[in-house]
User: Fold HTH lysR-type domain-containing protein from Kiloniella spongiae.
Amino acid sequence: MNLSQLRCFHAVASYQSFTAAANSLNISQPSISAQVKRLEEAYQVELFYRHGRRVVLSEFGLNLLEITRQLFQFEEAAQLYLESMAQDVNGHVRIGGGSPPYVMPVIAELQKLHPGLTFGLEFGNTKDILALLLDNEIDVAVVPASVPYDPRLDYEVLVDDSLVALVAADHPLASEDRVDLGRLLEERLLIREIGSATRVTIEKLLDRVGQKPGNISTIVSREAVKEAVACGLGVSIVRNLETGKNPRLVRLKLDCGELSDDLLTMTEYVVSLKKKKDASLIKAFYHAARSTRIL
Assistant:
């Protein structure tokens, strides 16, 4: 049995396209077509029905796909196991982050523990970063995951952080230590875009207290939100660590009456694909995260 032919079949069956399958395997379309044809001829079966550019699995093809799924899952598991047994952790890890104050200390610890590692880093909101993780565009992420949790992902708590109000240094509220949520909502509220876990948390909080801001503006950037607040364009609700040290900004504790502190807390997670969490690079990142003190 030719494993290369099975791999080609599996790619075409998975993508339902010879072109997409060829791109995924980095080979030409004529090559992948020839491999599949040889497999069909060797066992005198028809694995696909061709309809122009479309391909549809035959009954033989559907049954074989179930087998090749298991075959290549075991192959991937074997590779991950062998990687996890390697004593030296080297290579390149692709990291996704939601906010620099949470992910940068982990990367610093990772570099200290494994100076031979290189890394790439991409930032985005939680929704976008988790999509990259599921598409295998990144290896691991540090984000404030919002529910519902994806069963394909592994989540490990990194740190809990509290929500605070953010106002300009010359705002009338800036001289206070804390602010009532209802009073804050009398101002224009600047919030992140849809897909942001912070926005999801704020919306849940407002829904729980039964209050709605009179004026909301959406800004698609954490730094842009802070700059807008500093310029007096409104107020915001952010995580404590994200406020940074800016003399133009003042953070205030939020007073929400008798509501549970859980509603004012966001949890930052280290997230990876469950099927890859035992790879040496991912294990090294988790270890660095456990050794990092964020707050």
